[in-house]
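Design job #97: recover the sequence.
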């Protein structure tokens, strides 16, 4: 399975390491042509304004809009996929919206099965609204923090910063399903 990680800014190395651990063939993506032949793409956390600027500069915005395989967006990556940015995921988020003292924190998230998932939130976006086509997979403090819309999986926290690989496994599972549908 060939998975790209958008590598213009932010936590792309951590995502790449985790995906490699799970057996994926990982490619760093900085140019539109590097999206060709990928089975999935991760848009990592970092600074959404910086990532957005670099994406525009490299012509990646249209290329990502035209990309047809599953996409995982975490933290800043979720912001970039939202209604206001790429418009690919039907969510509306408030940036840095968990309050001052709570700018960064960890929380146990109930993901419906097995042990709770440890969520690392770093100046995280808070989901204010989402469309009917969006499925909420986990919540924290009254707001969704892990969501899925078709081939898109988004998290307001950083699954690449713990040893728990379940979010990435779920993403690879989504890729497996989607590629059998497309085949
Ligand atoms: N606060 C960042 C932003 O608004 C997101 C933080 C993160 O990705 N850890 O872009």
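Job complete. Output follows.
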């Amino acid at each position: 399975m060939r998975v790209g990680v958008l590598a213009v800014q932010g936590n792309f190395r951590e995502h790449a390491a985790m995906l490699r651990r799970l057996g994926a063939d990982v490619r760093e993506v900085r140019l539109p042509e590097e999206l060709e032949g990928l089975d999935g793409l991760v848009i990592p956390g970092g600074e959404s304004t910086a990532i957005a600027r670099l994406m525009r500069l490299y012509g990646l915005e249209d290329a990502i809009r035209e990309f047809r395989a599953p996409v995982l967006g975490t933290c800043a990556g979720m912001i970039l996929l939202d209604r206001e940015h790429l418009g690919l995921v039907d969510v509306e988020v408030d940036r840095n919206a968990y309050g001052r003292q709570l700018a960064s924190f960890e929380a146990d998230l109930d993901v419906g099965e097995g042990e709770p998932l440890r969520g690392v939130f770093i100046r995280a976006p808070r989901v204010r609204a989402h469309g009917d086509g969006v499925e909420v997979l986990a919540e924290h403090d009254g707001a969704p923090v892990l969501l899925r819309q078709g081939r898109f999986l988004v998290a307001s926290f950083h699954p690449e910063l713990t040893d728990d690989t379940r979010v990435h496994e779920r993403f690879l599972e989504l890729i497996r399903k989607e590629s059998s549908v497309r085949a």
